[in-house]
Amino acid sequence: MSTLNDVIAQFTADADTAHEIVHGDSTTTVPTEGGPVRSISKLVADNQALIDAALGLNQRLLQWAYATSFQLVSVTRDINSAIVTASIVWPDGGTGIFTTDTASTTFPGAIDAWHATYVNGSVSHTITQPAVTRDVSGAVTAQPAVTIA
To answer: Which structural domain range is residue 17 located in?
Structure first.
C-alpha cells in the first residue's frame, strides 16, 4: 500500500512531466511510463512541417499541371487522337492516371477539361483542370484555375 509520502512523490513527478510536455521547446520529447510524448511546441512544429511539405507539393503539382509536365506511359486515344486515359509519371516519380473529362467537339483532338491522379507512397491527390474556353481558331481564351484535392 502506498504511503502519503509515496503518493505526494508520484504526484510531484507527474506534475514535473506535465510541465515538460506543456513548456518544452520544439525539439522536446518527454519520456513517460506510456512511451515518449512530444511537447506541445514540438507537436505544433512537427505538424507545421507536414503542412509546409504538403503546400510545397501542391505548388509543384500546380506548376506541373499547367505545364503538363508529366510523362505519358500508356495512352488510350479516341478517333480524333485525343487522349481518353493514360498512365502517367510525374516529375518526382509519382504515378497516376490522366483522364479526359471533356474532349473538344469543335476542335477534334483538343482536350477542354481533364483530371489526373497523383500517388507517391501514402500521398495522393486529384488534380483537375475545369473546362477551358476557346476562340474560333481553337486557342484557349479562358482557363479556369487548376484545383487539387
So the answer is: 4-58
Percent of the chain residues topping a pLDDT of 90? 66
C-alpha cell belonging to residue 147: 484545383
Separation in Å, CA 115 to CA 43, 104, 125, 129, 147: 35, 15, 10, 6, 9
User: Domain tally for the chain?
Assistant: 2
Q: What is the SS3 assignment for 129?
A: strand
Q: pLDDT digit string (tens) for 121-147?
A: 888 999 999 999 999 999 999 999 999
Q: DSSP readout, 83-123?
A: EEEEEEE-TTS-EEEEEEEEE-SSSTT-EEEEEEEEEETTE
